[in-house]
Design goal:
mainly beta, 6-stranded antiparallel β-sheet, two-stranded antiparallel sheet
Length: 122
């Protein structure tokens, strides 16, 4: 675990919170609740269940539709509908550089804000 990253987080990384709301920089609600923080070879990610997403606030870019039926795609990509364009990963396959779980969603904490406007990571 990268302790420098853990110290910068403004939420617990080992235990989730089923009620905490996560927003984009413009104040758009993306999802409610998270399971844990995953820190892998590509940095930290907030892990949450698919049913936590506020579906009307995300979309799949047309250029990423191929991922849905592809056996080669490791994830399905979604983006928020606001100008912040936050990327949301829905994990389809295991990877070697992080303990992502198949069927869970991931977002970089650097793109997230809490309801009081504070950043998830400093």
């Amino acid at each position: 675990m990268d302790m420098m990253i853990v110290e910068r987080l403004n939420l617990p990384y080992k235990t989730g919170n089923s009620e905490l709301e996560f927003y984009t920089s413009t104040g758009l609600l993306i999802f409610r609740g998270y399971s844990r923080i995953v820190i892998g070879g590509r940095g930290p990610y907030v892990e949450f269940e698919e049913n936590a997403i506020v579906e009307e606030n995300i979309e799949m870019p047309r250029s990423q539709e191929w991922r849905v039926d592809s056996e080669n795609a490791y994830y399905i990509e979604f983006r928020t509908i606001d100008e912040s364009n936050v990327k949301i990963y829905f994990q389809k396959k295991r990877v070697g550089y992080a303990p992502y779980k198949i069927g869970f969603c991931y977002v970089s904490p650097f793109d997230l804000f809490l309801s009081d406007g504070s950043k998830v990571i400093d």
